[in-house]
Write a structure and sequence with these properties.
The protein is an alpha+beta fold. It is 16% helix and 26% strand. It is built from six helices and 13 strands. The N and C termini lie far apart (48 Å).
Length: 315
């Protein structure tokens, strides 16, 4: 069996399902395949006889701006991880700047090691996002007490939606090339429609270093159950537990309020001591929460005539 077939089989299983408590353990086998795949690279790339990955055209300086209505809410995913050719991809942004135009699995080299990550490079115009964590509500007990500044990797070599987190070292190195972070809900099924979504600058609140309880932090955009704020302050917790907001908190002096329609002590984007079925991340046991690091292409914005309607609403 060729390496391409082996990698495809294990990746499709591990990347789509992940390794969850009590389920079949595919991570060890997947890690071995990825290790062989990554080690097979040399200064000239993978040898011609072992070339199971897609690559990007280094001559392509701009990504394809065409987009279908479906792209507004979901990502087409490449089934095989894409390597960088003739450039160094430290984050997903480097892949996008060298021609990547669809979401999927990519190999990045953060200066210490190479590994596969999931990249979102087509749901928000000119933004590229690297997934650093994703977990399902039914597995909240495993992450509830783990703040993002705690080194607690989960299936970090097998990106998946249900129980996945990079090591603190990997997250820190990716953050070093990122200006923004965001938290999303149900990305796999809902994509990005900016509902139950928050985005902020790392300089305003760094999820990897912030330690606080209810401190007001500036966000660029926030939406909780349809309550929207643009360039407002919101209360965040990231102490002795996973980073989150409490949208029912009335004692806050922050400018953003989402207490209307909230349940008592409602948690958003983590911790989940109290949940609201109206909040997408906690709608049901299989609902998922994602954290991402990202940046945007630093050039004049393209005309939105070729973009999905609504994709640039919050910029």
């Amino acid at each position: 069996m060729g390496l391409s077939v082996v990698v495809s089989g294990y990746l499709l299983l591990a990347l789509s399902m992940g390794t969850l408590p009590g389920e079949a353990d595919t991570s060890a086998a997947t890690d071995q395949v990825l290790k062989r795949l990554l080690q097979s690279r040399n200064t000239e790339g993978i040898s011609a006889s072992r070339k199971p990955r897609q690559t990007l055209n280094p001559q392509r300086s701009r990504r394809d701006t065409s987009a279908s209505v479906e792209d507004c809410h979901s990502c087409g995913r490449n089934p095989m991880p894409i390597f960088a050719d003739n450039y160094t991809a430290r984050t997903c942004l480097d892949h996008m700047e060298h021609g990547a135009s669809r979401c999927g699995y990519y190999v990045i080299d953060d200066g210490r090691e190479s590994y596969v990550v999931f990249c979102d490079i087509n749901t928000e115009i000119d933004f590229a996002w690297t997934l650093i964590e994703s977990f399902a509500l039914k597995h909240n007990s495993f992450v509830k007490r783990k703040a993002l500044y705690v080194d607690w990797p989960l299936n970090e070599n097998s990106p998946n939606w249900y129980m996945y987190r990079l090591s603190l070292g990997r997250m820190t190195r990716i953050r070093g090339h990122s200006i923004y972070w965001r938290a999303t809900c149900e990305f796999l099924s809902a994509g990005i429609d900016h509902r139950d979504y928050v985005r902020a600058k790392v300089a305003d609140v760094d999820p990897l270093t912030y330690k606080g309880q209810g401190s007001c932090k500036t966000v660029e955009y926030i939406n909780i159950r349809g309550h929207v704020g643009v360039r407002m302050t919101a209360p965040f917790w990231n102490y002795d537990g996973h980073m989150h907001m409490d949208s029912s908190y009335l004692g806050s002096s922050c400018s953003f309020k989402a207490n209307s329609g909230a349940v008592s002590k409602e948690d958003n984007w983590g911790y989940y001591g109290a949940i609201n079925s109206k909040f997408r991340c906690t709608a049901h046991a299989d609902s998922t929460t994602q954290y991402w690091m990202g940046d945007y292409v630093k050039r004049q914005r393209r005309s939105t005539s070729t973009a999905c309607k609504g994709r640039d609403k919050v910029y």
